[in-house]
Design a protein that fits this description.
This protein is about 35% helix and about 5% strand. The protein is built from seven helices and two strands. Bound molecules: zinc ion (3 copies).
Length: about 180
């Protein structure tokens, strides 16, 4: 893998980001957008690099979502860690019932989970397995719930299809387009 191929892969993944124009020399955090100076080409600060990462990259976004929910279901308050402390009670649950799942409120449909604006914090909710099943079924029952919205999803928007190789998080977040 040459440096050029690595940059191309990261650029294709970055094309999944639609909340800001990432080609402009402005901080990529939507609420910031300050002009960048000096050597900075993507973020005004390391804090905003991390903020962008938490809003777009699935492995980071889901970790942040669970922490924000204090490791409890946001609908029913179920807290697996409390049950795991009590072996007798824990034994009455299946293993998957003692895990918290992170649900996309607006479904991903054609979008790539790994990098997506659908990973914004306000589109994620932490659910226990039971509430997640209910949420998924409710979504399917909704009229047009399965309809593919052409305005949603990287694949449907005609953005370049990212390579199957998942880049390292740092390749996407730290990519500096102006660097040579
Ligand atoms: Zn900023
Ligand atoms: Zn629940
Ligand atoms: Zn976004």
């Amino acid at each position: 893998m040459t440096e050029h191929e690595t940059a191309g892969t990261a650029a294709a993944w970055l094309a999944q980001v639609t909340c800001v124009d990432v080609t402009l020399r402005l901080c990529r955090v939507a609420t910031c957008r300050v002009e960048l100076d000096g050597r900075r080409t993507a973020y005004c600060s390391d804090a905003h690099a991390r903020e962008f990462e938490a809003q777009h990259l699935w492995p980071v976004a889901r970790r942040v979502a669970r922490r924000r929910a204090r490791w409890a279901c946001q609908r029913c308050g179920f807290k697996p860690s409390a049950i795991r402390k009590d072996p007798t009670r824990a034994a009455t649950f299946a293993r998957h019932e003692l895990k918290l799942e992170v649900n996309h409120i607006e479904a991903l449909r054609g979008s790539y989970r790994f990098v997506s604006c659908l990973n914004h914090a306000d589109n994620l909710e932490v659910l226990c397995h039971r509430c997640h099943v209910e949420a998924t079924n409710a979504g399917r029952a909704r009229p047009g719930g399965e309809r593919r919205d052409p305005t949603v999803g990287g694949a449907a928007r005609g953005t370049p299809r990212p390579s199957r190789r998942r880049p390292a998080l740092s390749e996407i977040v730290d990519i500096e387009p102006a660097r040579d």
